[in-house]
Structure formats: C-alpha cells, structure tokens
Amino acid sequence: MILSDKDILKLIDENKLIIEPFNREFLGPSSYDVTLGDEFIIYDDEVYDLSKELNYKRIKIKNSILVCPLNYNLTEEKINYFKEKYKVDYVVEGGVLGTTNEYIELPKDITSFYQGRSSLGRVFLTSHQTAGFIDAGFKGKITLEIVAHDKPVILYPNMRIGQLIFFKLHSPAEVGYCEKKNSKYAYQKSVMPSLIYNDFSVKK
Questions:
Q1: 180 lies in a domain?
Q2: CATH code (residue 140)
Q3: Is the pTM of the predicted complex or chain greater than 0.90?
Q4: Using the 8-state DSSP alphabet, how is residue 11 labeled?
Q5: For a disulfide at 72, which of 23, 47, 68, 179, Cβ 3.0-4.6 Å?
Q6: CA–CA gap between residue 188 and residue 200 (Å, rounded)
Q7: Which of these ranges, 12-16, 71-75, 89-93, 112-116, has the smallest mean pLDDT?
Q8: Where is this site: Important for bifunctional activity (predicted)?
Q9: DSSP output for 85-115
Q10: What does the pLDDT read at residue 201?
C-alpha cells in the first residue's frame, strides 16, 4: 500500500517516520521531495574492480556543479570556459555520487523508493541508476547516482532532486536494515562510495 500525504504526516507526528529536515511544502499527495546536498564523490579508478576498495575523492560545492555526459571530451579549455561562464565550482564528466540533505529513519513496517523528479528526467538527467529501493528499518541519508545523458546539466545545492514514495508492509520485518550485521550503508551521514568489495572474502 502506497502511503498518502495524510499517512506520512501521521507517521511523522507519531515519531515513527523521521525526515530531517522536514518541509511541509515538499509533501506531495503520495510522496515527499528531497533536496540535493553539497557533497559529492568522484571515482579515480580507470577500471572498477569490484573485488577491491575503489579510489575516489570527495568534493564540496558552494555554488553549483556541472555534470557532463560520458565521453563529452572535456578539455582544460572547456572546463575553464564552463567555470568562467556559469560560475560552477566543479565540472565532472560521467557519473558522480551525491547525497540528499535529508536524513531519514524508516520503521520496520515501512519501505521506500527513491524516484528522480520528472522535471529532471525531461532534461535527460537521472539521479539514481538501480539503487532506488530503501529497505525497511533503514536509517541515514540517501546516496544518489547522478548521470547526465544528453547535455551538461548544472545542479545546485538544496534544489529538489527527487522524491520518496513510502509503502506499508503486510507485516513488519523481523530484522530491520540497520539491525543486520552486514548492512553496508547503515547510518550514513553523507555520500558513500560503493562498498561491494566487502562481499568478497579473500582466502589466504
């Protein structure tokens, strides 16, 4: 069952669902809009070897970030041009990881899906790839997988980037996400890289 605005407000009032910060104006008929944080991750590796910890750098923006499609053929000249003309802090090519400002806590009988806003889809920007599902009992911020598919897109901190849709489970989960010992992204406070290398056991 998808929760309505009344259901979401009731759960928040009862302190069973936590969204911090919460803005009443961001509540839709059956969803809640979330905003883009100011921290991002850019991977440095030539190849993603998923059995190993990936190399990356964290960046923080004040004004904006310009995300270019993969194989856009960025040159130093283009980067300087974009920075000068559009006053962006960073110019990135390909995918970049971001985060929501919002920290959420789901009870064990509520799950959620993150969905990018349709207005951003109309400029061919996705803010999640395959990781839109948020398990019951999750606590933390949402990491976003951001890709521009057509032309460069300028993103600004605190802009509405996507929405959360909440679902009521038929029965509560026996073990919530953050109660599992192998939960990789429990209580994340900012953007997090892939931790899939933890799935691999190294035999010596």
A1: yes
A2: 2.70.40.10
A3: yes
A4: H
A5: 68
A6: 21
A7: 71-75
A8: 132-133
A9: HH--SEEEES-EEEEEEEEEE--TTEEEEEE
A10: 63
Q: Note whether residue 151 is domain-resident.
A: yes
What's the total number of domains in the chain?
A: 1
Binding residues: 117-122, 135, 143-145, 163, 177, 184, 188
199 belongs to a structural domain: no
- pLDDT at residue 69, as a whole number: 96
Distance CA 115, CA 157 (A): 18
Tokens representing residue 31 in the block: 């969803």
Indicate the annotated binding residues for dCTP: 117-122, 135, 143-145, 163, 177, 184, 188
Residue position matching structure tokens 């964290």: 58
Residue 197 has pLDDT above 70, yes or no: yes
* Residue 145 known to be catalytic: yes
Options 77, 102, 105, 145, the catalytic residue: 145
Question: What tokens does 14 get?
Answer: 């009862």
**Residue corresponding to tokens 């936590």:** 18
Residue ranges making up the domain that contains 68? 5-46+55-191
For residue 137, the tally of other CB atoms under 10 A from its CB is: 23
pLDDT band at 130 (very low <50, low <70, confident <90, very high): confident
